[in-house]
TrEMBL record, chains A, B:
Residues 7-193, 225-425 form the dTDP-4-dehydro-6-deoxy-alpha-D-glucopyranose 2,3-dehydratase domain. This is NDP-hexose 2,3-dehydratase family protein. It comes from Microbispora oryzae. InterPro entries: EvaA-like, EvaA-like_sf. One of its GO terms (molecular function) is lyase activity.
Length: 440, 440
């Protein structure tokens, strides 16, 4: 499956990207066609927040993409049609990707590439639709990006063409334990796929997981209570964003062909030239976001009356469609806080970092969307706990796993990092063997 | 209940509004405090739409307001705490309004008015929360406006202060049949209030309605299918909006102190001076949107396997948060099409206008938010039909009434006009007498 696509990625100063222009009037960085995406400046005002104002570069990609997976059943077992796809930002080559992963520019063929295989199954919904929901992506790096996450069940006659393979759902879930292998787009679609099996025959944590996916299982808080909590926060938090000039961004400097924060933290905007074989287009250039440091993304999970709950955090990011989304318990880049006193660190980071091995249910390094982010890696962790470390905290809530699934039928409730962790949790229900700790 | 507040509203040229300024740099019209709202220009591009590009003025009010109703039970019967409230745009004086109807500027007292009674019940959620959901408002006149719709059940000890009255839910529903009496904010909250009674003891259409609110009743399309249909349209329709200068808006002219479309259609932006007694502030000035002509807003409803379904239309408006919302079967100002050939008229207008009286279940003139819209009136109609007038039309779908209720737990599915009609449909379940046709 691996290595199908050769790809050479070379750093290039932003000023030297042949197909990209800086608009003098607006200060935006855009493709000469006016399509794909732009890199813009954003001024953010968040009265009452820990940082009340800041400015940052952000990617604006207004068009909706399709992230689609075809599913078929063989002998009752679900199989997914996955693609080996390389992207310039991937840390280690091709990744297991959805059947279709295409922006509108892709499939309307703005860059005159090849047609997108299997696309018609999603655009025409030829088959039984198992999931079909628009979801956000990184609200810290994308301004109101949304993609359509869709799973369509088809008959057994659909064949895998070159570069694609039918993998059993169990195999895909097992691959989720391999570092950097299943890409972000596949993970978010997997998160939205309704549960495909019951709890029968499992033991231990896998059995608890399966039982906790049953909508009839109880929950600490009713769904109405969770929705009201979110409605309250969304209506109370003030966040104002305003486009601004990329070339005049407070706190950021342009040097050596890249844009960096003056402290060296957060991320850089870099340029790359890409040469590829086996893709629609053989050569192109583009800007990318290159995060500084490796992130930590973790769910604390806990049994409440026998049902597993995840501790979700109502997180504000400037690019969200509606102010706040439900995020993992911990989502940060610990290195950004090394110079600060312990009190300034995000909550529960140390609890996750110091969790004893017997509490760790999942622990794998995964990377984010390699089409826009350059080697953006997060350590994804699920830690089981017996305690509530933040009882009554207004920004955290225990949500039963079946409630996460119910929320995922609708848009913009769970952020993309929480969706990855939800897919990882799903994977633990199906994995044959206990999953060993991954890298780091 | 009526007439509590005296209000004198005088037209004033936009240039002479004492508290409002036109920003030369941005071309926006704003309050000198920078708060409340702005009137801006918007350029809209909708490739493939019936009108592929247009420009228009639009109200930008980024802050979220609270629309809250307190509910209590006396002898098991629900009572709502309603307020008699006047607004400058109301066609005929005070209206039955929610317990609280306040923007953040109101309740943080930017204009140094009086405190907002009962607000604390909603901000602290003191009681049982029956509904709590953010919803859009008119996407043709507001840019991404959203309000929190909330109903809190309290104990029997809460008293009505001056200007407020506890009305039984049945009384409120009966008042919905009176022209221009129940305001838009009350209607949208009533639409989100879950059903408060079963079907027992009713006959005819009221019994059908009550039965069709039961989540266990069947439906023509499953909820997943409806969500997928909406996800498809939201991901397929292209609409791009860009702020532009109000003073350079293509197709609009500024004359006699107002902004009007060069054809005289759609709406004007006008200025008013308001003098009021019994409100927080005794005198102010503001711009308002004054629609040209009276609108027609209608649901066709139809029994499918004994369950009432409404024919919803996936409608694109430039101010929506996510491209499209589910709208009534018909939503238009018929006068805007008088000069055009029949083929250019919106679908089903004539069917609604010509519906025989025995098919009309609801027919009342209601007005829209009088704080921003000047005498904006729509004739709201529910017509029962035996047929599907648009079988297989890609922009229309039959949705069971209990599915409307389920969708209303979440944000941005049903637009504000569909929510009014949903409240009207709810009212017919409870009304003692058959509702006679209203004005017009």
């Amino acid at each position: 499956m691996a290595g199908h696509t050769f790809m050479q990625v070379t750093p290039l100063p932003l000023e030297q990207l042949p197909e990209w222009r800086e608009d003098r009037a607006t200060g935006r960085f855009h493709h000469r066609s006016g399509k794909f995406f732009t890199v813009e400046g954003l001024d953010v005002r968040r009265p009452g927040g820990p940082v009340p104002t800041w400015s940052q570069p952000i990617i604006n990609q207004p068009e909706t993409g399709v992230l689609g997976i075809l599913l078929k059943r063989v002998g009752g077992m679900p199989y997914l049609l996955m693609q080996a796809k390389n992207e310039p930002g991937n840390p280690s080559g091709p990744q297991v990707s959805p059947t279709v992963q295409a922006t509108r520019s892709n499939y309307t063929r703005v860059h005159q590439g090849l047609p997108v295989p299997y696309l018609e199954h999603f655009l025409d919904r030829r088959g039984r639709v198992l999931a079909d929901v628009r979801q956000s992506e990184q609200g810290a790096w994308f301004y109101r990006k949304r993609n359509r996450n869709i799973v369509v069940e088809v008959g057994p006659h659909i064949e895998a063409v070159e570069g694609f393979r039918w993998l059993s759902l169990r195999e895909v879930y097992e691959l989720l334990a391999v570092p950097d292998l299943v890409n972000m787009d596949a993970r978010t679609v997997l998160a939205c796929l309704p549960v495909q099996a019951g709890a029968g025959g499992r033991e231990g944590f896998a059995a608890d997981l399966a039982r906790s996916r049953d909508p009839r299982a109880g929950a600490r808080h009713g769904l109405g209570e969770i929705l009201s909590w979110l409605s309250d926060i969304r209506s109370t938090v003030e966040i104002h964003t305003r486009p601004s000039r990329l070339d005049l961004l407070r706190g950021w400097r342009r040097a050596e062909g890249r844009i960096s924060h003056e402290t060296g933290r957060f991320f850089d905007v870099i340029g790359v030239r890409v040469e590829a074989c086996g893709r629609e287009v053989a050569e192109w250039s583009q800007p990318m976001i290159a995060p500084v440091g490796t992130g930590l993304v973790a769910f604390l999970v806990r049994r409440i009356d026998g049902v597993l709950h995840a501790l979700v955090h109502a997180r504000v990011e400037p690019g969200y469609t509606d102010v706040v989304e439900l995020a993992p318990t911990v989502q940060c880049t610990p290195g950004n806080y090394d110079h600060l006193p312990a009190a300034a660190r995000p909550l529960l980071v140390d609890e996750v970092m110091a969790a004893p091995p017997h509490r760790i249910r999942y622990d794998t390094m995964l990377s984010e969307e390699g089409g826009r982010f350059y080697r953006a890696r997060n350590r994804y962790v699920v830690v089981e706990t017996d305690e509530d470390p933040l009882p009554g905290h207004p920004s955290f809530h225990w949500v039963a796993l079946h409630q996460l699934d119910e929320l995922l039928r609708h848009s913009y409730y769970l952020n993309v990092q929480a969706r990855t962790l939800n897919a990882c949790l799903h994977s633990l229900t199906h994995a044959r063997e206990p999953v060993s700790a991954g890298a780091l």
